[in-house]
Request: fold
Amino acid sequence: MSVQRIVIIGAVALGPKVACRLKRLKPDWDVLMIDQDEHISYGGCGIPYFVSGEISDVRELMSTSFHMLRSPEFFETAKGVRVRNRTRALAIDRANRRVAVRALPSGQEEEIPHDTLVLATGSRPNRLPIAGIDLPGVMSVSNLHQAMAIKDQIAKGEVDRAVIIGAGAIGCEMAEALNDLWGVETTLVEIAPQVLPGILDSDLARMVLHHLEEHGVRVHLNESVEAITAAEAEAEGALRVKTGSRVLDADLVITAVGVRPNSALARDAGLLVSPRGGIVVDGRLRTSDPAIYAGGDCIEITHRLTGEPVFFPQGSLANRQGRIIGTNIAGGHATFAGTVGAFTVKIFDLAVAAAGLTAARARAEGFDAVHALVVQADRAHFYPTQDLMTLLITVDRKTRRLLGVQGLSRNGDALNGRINSIAALLPYKATIEDLSNLELAYSPPFSSALDIVNALGNTAENILDGFNAPIDPEDFERCFLGADPDPEVLCLDVRGPQNAAPFVDRFGDRWVNIPQETLGERLAEVPKDKRLVLVCNSGVRSYEALLQLRHAGITNAANLQGGVAAIKQAGLVDLSEPDQDGDS
Amino acid sequence: MSVQRIVIIGAVALGPKVACRLKRLKPDWDVLMIDQDEHISYGGCGIPYFVSGEISDVRELMSTSFHMLRSPEFFETAKGVRVRNRTRALAIDRANRRVAVRALPSGQEEEIPHDTLVLATGSRPNRLPIAGIDLPGVMSVSNLHQAMAIKDQIAKGEVDRAVIIGAGAIGCEMAEALNDLWGVETTLVEIAPQVLPGILDSDLARMVLHHLEEHGVRVHLNESVEAITAAEAEAEGALRVKTGSRVLDADLVITAVGVRPNSALARDAGLLVSPRGGIVVDGRLRTSDPAIYAGGDCIEITHRLTGEPVFFPQGSLANRQGRIIGTNIAGGHATFAGTVGAFTVKIFDLAVAAAGLTAARARAEGFDAVHALVVQADRAHFYPTQDLMTLLITVDRKTRRLLGVQGLSRNGDALNGRINSIAALLPYKATIEDLSNLELAYSPPFSSALDIVNALGNTAENILDGFNAPIDPEDFERCFLGADPDPEVLCLDVRGPQNAAPFVDRFGDRWVNIPQETLGERLAEVPKDKRLVLVCNSGVRSYEALLQLRHAGITNAANLQGGVAAIKQAGLVDLSEPDQDGDS
Reply:
């Protein structure tokens, strides 16, 4: 190929990756990145850690791993990539292969010719259609300017109270950033009935909610914000956030209600854009005009479990797509197969991670979805640093295919290791039997002989094959723990008496304690006229008990998934219990 | 099926798993485990942590996660499994389906009838064919009795010096156990030219060696022990270990030279046993007699990359196989597909993990194997807890198939997460392009936007496609760093002057420093008449420089894989350098 001129619109994540890959493959080519912002090539995902103070200097988000600032000059000298920042792309002239741009400082306009164009226009935050959204002190965290403004305001001591609208990943990260280091009294308002909607099923979301609340974050679910007003009676800058059921005072309001693709430029140029706003691309990341590529947050991609187009803005996908576009423009052949929706976030001391479909989403997509919940030590239970991990998988009943996984742990590396191992299986249509036999490296400091991942597969098998009859923590709350319990439900606690005692004290006759190892000889004591929920610390001994009862003809029993560990994590019981040491 | 009688020979790992699975599926069946030892169902992999003192009470290795001792009584009351410990199986009468056993305390013999037999006879340590191997104070660590004896001897202050024969996983774990908490002066003797032979390629093994030495362990490679004698002139119990080149004094000698399958019982009964000693089983884990199953350390299994039978004793595989055997005996259908050789070990502060084939092994198996080595931050490089991780993949040149991965990190959870994600891909004949696009959950606290796993795939692609021309750290040592350097080789350091300065001081004219971002304008200074090794901190900037030089017609250059980080980790240079902060 002769020397080509490549123009890339957008210089964060995808754009620089395309540019650098191209220059490595085709050093002679002319590669130009333009961006309307002054700042380019920064790690936007690091913004919450900059606001929290964990990252002290914003330049760290704009530097290479070897501490060089990724400035326009860096791209020019180290990479041979030309950069024009503070330059806005106005229109694409496809017929003449030109992009009209305006230099923002001078206002001067010109047209830039090219052979191939790359759209790396990213996304922008959704804007709530409410009064007051433009008031000073109402911010999103979609770029470095806002991040610096927020941090500046907090550091000056001007923020005692903050309201964050939206309890998705960014909202939860910002709640930690404001609350943990700065001590800002923080309230999260979420329109959905749970935190992290779409990412976690409700039982795990409940655990995250409890964790947020334990760290002093107030969370209001099922509430939407109707208006924001300046609270005139109070100090200047103070705001009032009005929801359907309350008014919240705040010095700072952060909106974190999702982002949408920046696709206006593409649409105006007649390129195919989906009804949801994402630029449509093929497997090689070409738009409907093969001389124009697009990637990153401005495109729609294929979900590898449903085959449907989805919008899934992730810096990691943008980087991988950038390399693919670079390879293809240089004359190679590379393809992007889509996403399994791998996701993780740190919220205070808890890591959350997921991949594939939640059970709720799988059902909505038409799968006959079954889920299994396991709480187990994240390494050999006798190894001193072991801690509990919670994982939930979604599987398809008929094909036994793995559809998704989600989990929580205080050890985010251990959790992500498990989630990523399962995520790797999802495109291969792996089954629960594949999960039961998934080969993880084993040594007591890092994993269990029968690792939680294998236990998940085993549990799903046992449920699908009719051996295990599970009940979820939230269903247990509804029928037993809550304000209006079902009088026909009793709890049979198969742990040792020491662990059971506080529950017996609290629930009286409704909480029966027969340790599993004595169940065989005490069958006569098991109530036969009630529905039983079998309980142990994690769901393992109660599964054993369930089978013992069935063998004795007692079939009206269900096994609490995740056991007492799960309901404690969700904050559904609050009892002072002795430690697990001794019996349990 | 009518009620069946099942006898299981061996009650550690596999045996209990078969028994418990069976009783859950078939509560009426009669399941008997026999074991010659007093101790059953213990976590043998935990022995090094018991000896080190990290696990204080040996009963923790014999207890459930809910702190109940897995004694014979526990199996009988909680699981309905009968146990006869201290009972040795003498012979199998296949025609009459009977096992002859001897009760060890009484010496009484009898024959136990059954419908199905399971061999869970495990493995035993290899015995060195040398004089003195039976002396008091010469031990292996294959069971709890020996572990307790060793710990007892150390705790009494009787061990100042120890020699460990064999620098495989157990040998290295024991070196840490003796040295770290107890301060025992420990020497490892290994017949191979590297530590962890067969598990790591030599460059990574060199890094582990350096780590051991930094922690005060003396390591003698390429040495075999010829004899052990009692050192009469010294205190009673003191030993002398004679190798080909030296004599080592020791109060304790531990042999850790591998294990072999216990298959005599099977062989004597006419079952098929491989020339290497493993019992031969089919995919459902049946021996050559379909009424007899076998699993765990006594069998041979299929390597999923070579298709060849291998002996790979792992407690994790035994547990998974146990469930499969239980399912099959109960009339279900479950299969064991083989192993990808997933492996991990903790050695002092370093975690080592691997899966698949090393490059050396792949070449020996006939693959045209290429490897790529990457040293990169294990999470966003701007996130405060980031640390370097080292990974190496082996790939097949023609098919571009992933053949194996190995790695090192101070964060074992982060390392195992990466290794297990790649291990999950190996059975699916995944290619390096699949690795380049492997979707890991991304958030700065846990991963990078372009994670090290993706960087590995990219690097392998660049090597196979002829863009990257790598040189390994050990080759760099041979031609440049070592005592007899090649005068035709120069080093071109493309980092900043601050990082390069100590190297320039040390190597003088042989170490040229031109920062990568200035290379374009300083091409005239690049020596044209020598072979160049390009160096930066990790191999990324030097790759960029390699392509710049090529574009300028300078083709006699190679890129040091893993950069200065790799050669430092391997202890190949020892220079006081400024921190990476500032330039680099």
